[in-house]
Design brief:
about 425 residues; 4-stranded mixed sheet; 14 helices; about 50% helix; globular; binds flavin-adenine dinucleotide; Acyl-CoA dehydrogenase family protein; flavoprotein
Length: about 425
């Protein structure tokens, strides 16, 4: 395994372009989003900036090169995610729908399906969105459970050459699309006669078939378009089934692998921002004492411990995203560590930093608490660490041929 942590010239340019876009476009956008009370109105504020990001080629940067995009490695993805999530994780969640929703298409789609479902996201204009419709309002941790448990409840029934899909979906960004007629594609985890399956619905099949039952008013990630919807008699060609009937559990779990690893980069971004805020406060504020509070050992110790954790989170998320995108067999284990460790470390780090700032942090006008409200989502989104992610690690560890050194590339020879 070659190891280098020096950014290439291309990666330095990517970081500069991503940071510039984040600071000039996303920062002012987020100020407007924060002050808008209605969840739908504030999510729609993102659309013009979304279109600008598409025109600058960032969306193609999320599509792997073999499928027509320009994404070539996981570290590039980690750099983009961290820079954008530092200013607006909600924007990146909105933008990165294809990262999850196209996962099953890349894994098991036919060449015709790949071409049809990927093409809207290779555009250099407009604001195409994708939704991975897995979660349901009644729960998803046990989606693969068989009767008498409910498991996944959305179902698809064949009628001639079409699937007829009915059910309720929630939480996935952009389930109704910008205008209520659906995203460009919705990848739907559902029950068919042969088990859990994955079927892609396109916008023309979704239009008029989505009833929005609620716009969730999230405490953090305020610009996310997050809803509960009723899919009513969505009719989709039989040819939109991905893989075979019954492949849905594997395809769904795999779809969340890259996005799970990316949570490590989101978590790093929130923690990095909170650290800078607390650090500047500690250097500038004496709080009535003789010297800035950073001179107190207790304050400095927290800065030291939290900075070390942030560096570890970043490296793990780079490693995990690199492994997942390179389809390294150890990618799933690394992605799960990046997701669980990164998300829980971010909440711990920001909570510790809030304590060194003290009471000032509790004023919503002071810019640290909103990073905690964003970060608190990371242990529960993309599969909660309690209900989903640790169980996936348990399964990996339970395999008879599991090698604990393999994820580090240190398997013994011979
Ligand atoms: C901002 C945001 C974006 C999201 N984006 C998407 C998306 O794009 N697509 C999508 O489909 N979903 C999305 N989600 C939902 C997300 O993936 C959830 O993690 C998922 O719905 C599973 O939630 P859960 O694990 O809490 O499951 P639930 O089924 O709601 O379970 C609730 C809790 O019960 C306990 N539990 C249940 N069963 C078990 C068990 N067998 N073992 C141990 N504990 C158990 C756990 O504590 C679990 O957290 C998003 C959520 C957020 C907040």
């Amino acid at each position: 395994m070659a190891v280098s942590f020096t950014l290439s010239d291309h990666q330095k340019q990517l970081k500069a372009a991503a940071r510039s876009f984040a600071r000039t476009k996303l920062r002012p956008l987020m100020e407007r989003v924060e002050s808008e009370r209605d969840p739908r109105t504030r999510a729609l504020l993102l659309q013009p900036v979304f279109a600008e990001a598409v025109s600058e080629g960032f969306l193609r940067g999320l599509i792997p090169a073999p499928f027509g995009g320009t994404a070539s490695n996981g570290v590039d993805a980690a750099i983009l995610i961290e820079e954008w999530a530092a200013e607006s994780p909600d924007f990146f969640i909105s933008f990165a729908g294809p990262l999850i929703a196209l996962g099953p298409v890349y894994e098991a789609g036919t060449p015709e399906q790949i071409s049809r479902f990927v093409s809207p996201f290779l555009a250099d204009e407009g604001s195409p969105v994708a939704a991975m419709a897995f979660s349901e309002p009644t729960g998803s941790a046990n989606f693969a459970a068989e009767t008498p448990a409910a498991g996944i409840r959305t179902h698809a029934v064949l009628d001639g050459d079409e699937w007829v899909i009915n059910g309720h979906k929630a939480w996935a960004s952009h389930l109704p699309g910008w205008d209520g007629d659906g995203p460009e594609i919705m990848t739907i985890t559902c029950r068919t006669q042969a088990g859990v399956s994955v079927i892609v619905a396109e916008r023309e099949q979704l239009a008029g078939r989505i009833e929005v039952e609620e716009y969730y008013d999230l405490p953090g990630l305020r610009g996310s378009l997050t809803t509960r919807v009723h899919l009513k008699d969505v009719r989709v060609p039989h040819a939109n089934l991905i893989g075979s009937e019954g492949d849905g559990v594997r395809l769904t779990l795999n779809a969340f692998m890259a996005s799970g690893a990316s949570i490590g980069a989101f978590a790093t971004a929130s923690a990095r921002q909170a650290w800078s805020i607390a650090y500047n406060f500690a250097r500038e504020e004496a709080r009535g004492g003789l010297s800035p509070i950073i001179d107190h050992q207790a304050v400095s110790d927290v800065l030291a411990d939290t900075k070390g954790k942030i560096e570890a989170m970043r490296l793990l998320s780079w490693r995990a995203l690199d492994a997942v995108i390179a389809q390294d067999p150890d990618g799933p284990e690394l992605a799960l560590h990046a997701k669980i460790f990164g998300s829980e470390a971010a909440v711990e780090v920001i909570t510790a930093l809030v304590k060194i700032v003290g009471v000032t942090a509790y004023d919503t006008g002071f810019p640290i608490l909103h990073h905690l409200l964003d970060a608190i989502a990371y242990p529960i989104m993309e599969g909660s660490n309690t209900g989903v992610r640790r169980r996936q690690l348990q399964r990996i560890f339970s395999a008879p041929d599991y090698d604990p050194l393999s994820a580090s590339g240190l398997t013994e020879i011979g």
